[in-house]
Amino acid sequence: MSTITGPKSVPHYAGTKTPRKAALASWIGSAVEYYDFFIYGTAAALIFPKVFFSKSDPTAAAIAAFATFGVAYLARPFGAVALGHIGDKFGRKKVLTFTLLLMGFSTFLIGILPTYEQVGLLAPVLLVVARLLQGVSAAGEQAGASSMTLEHAPTRRRAFYTSFTLSGTQGGLILATFVFLPLSRLPPDQLLSWGWRIPFFLSAIVVAVGFWVRRTLPETPAFEEENREHGQAKLPVATLFREHAADVMRVIFAALVSVVSTIFAVFTLSYAVNTMHISRSTMLMVLVLANVVALGAIPAWATLADRIGRKPVFILGALGCAVFIWPYVWAISRADITLIFVFGILLSGIIYSAANGVWPALYGEMFDTRVRLSGVAIGTQIGFALGGFAPAISAAVLRPGPDGWVPVALFTAVTAAIAAVSVATARETYLAPMNELGRKRTALAG
Question: Where are the alpha helices (DSSP H) in 184-279?
């Protein structure tokens, strides 16, 4: 890819057109998308084992419910290939519109599904189908939103603006948790019969809001410039693996840090409520407060990454998670409410936000415009697959007794450390102009 020169090219790559609007659209779209995605995780931890599976073996039902949470991650790599191709060939905006509508449809579908008592094994089968559709949608959402924002953003603010994609994700989790908080106080028979369906029905409203915000957002200047100067890659995925195979592998291993998120939001919620008998409302409040803190921490870490580079901030976050997962799960095993709040907010709200807020810029800057959406989508979704099954893996390795949580913490810490090592091998790109990103001769910054 040759360097773009001339006065007409600079505004496009500088990203001076509507960066704030792109960031806002990414925030709201991601919040909507992940509201839908996270209400499933909460329901999988608290509701689905009792609604969609046989009650004869509660442990097996819990593992099966967590597996349906993870099954969406099996669909995500396939969705990433398809949606990455569409986004790199026809534009980011088309992908973002499709993902929003598909997520809304599949989430509403879950809300109307029959239960195990009504239709037997057909109930979990239908649940898996709906969850697979959610997975396809999520495969293109964050990669599309972060690519859109990155390509609109000014060079020295790319991490800051792209971080809104992930703070939107946290906003969706907060919204999902707030919806479940009053429902968690319903009598068990009402919660299990009709109460759990309400958050899924509400997705129709939040999807309409997200669609309204995104419909007027223009295509990115970098994508349009690339098409004018060089045309579209015939097969973006083939180009991606021919020219960027090593970077795809880096993203896959770096994305293993997502294990921290799903362990925190799904597994520890179930462990605390079902094993340690801590109240649902208490643990949901931990999730809310941690993610409220993350709303501020994510752009703060991203701002730092625009000044000192992406790598040190991400590595600090990943290694910090490998350390702080231990006291957090230990506090839950002791049912120490004060320490659960302290370590939960430190782990998820502050430390994980360092890696979480920086990765949209870090990963997107590894690839050039022709294959950026494909590279980020495929790399993250393969890496996220382990994160999706992390609650099921953790439920399987959890042991009885006061120290039974240790294998779960060890599993989480190892995956976070792998992510840090992977990013340590990447190029630093925070000073590189947009038209040089993803090129082999891009100089190391700093």
Answer: 188-193, 198-201, 203-214, 221-230, 236-243, 245-254, 258-262, 268-270
